[in-house]
Amino acid sequence: MFIPTFPKDLNPYTEADRKKLDVRNLTVANSKDKDNIRKNLIKRDGGLCPVCETSILETNEPIELHHLTGISEGGTWKLENLVLLHEACHKSVTHNEALKNELRESYNSNRPAMSA
Fold first, then answer.
1. Which keywords describe this protein according to UniProt (predicted)?
2. Which of 21, 66, 108, 109 is the most buried (most CB within 10 A)?
3. At 45, which CATH number?
């Protein structure tokens, strides 16, 4: 699967940058791997968002894929570097370096769930 990388300074929450990132999202969305990635992450994490520890299956909120180590920082698309988060939880992690580090450390320590 081809996954393009983008500069660190792109922010998926701004309209201008979101358009630039749409190419990557379409690549992943059209991939057969997307469903397998989500299924494996749901199985690994018990269907829970590791930030708020509530179900990602029983919600109307969008679910987003988060890289524990960003692609621009040398991260990969391997399952051990990915986690599914509620949209609001993803925004919290993206904009809070301490929370981002806590989430990364919880997975590096083989503890999928973290305290909110």
1. Mitochondrion
2. 66
3. 1.10.30
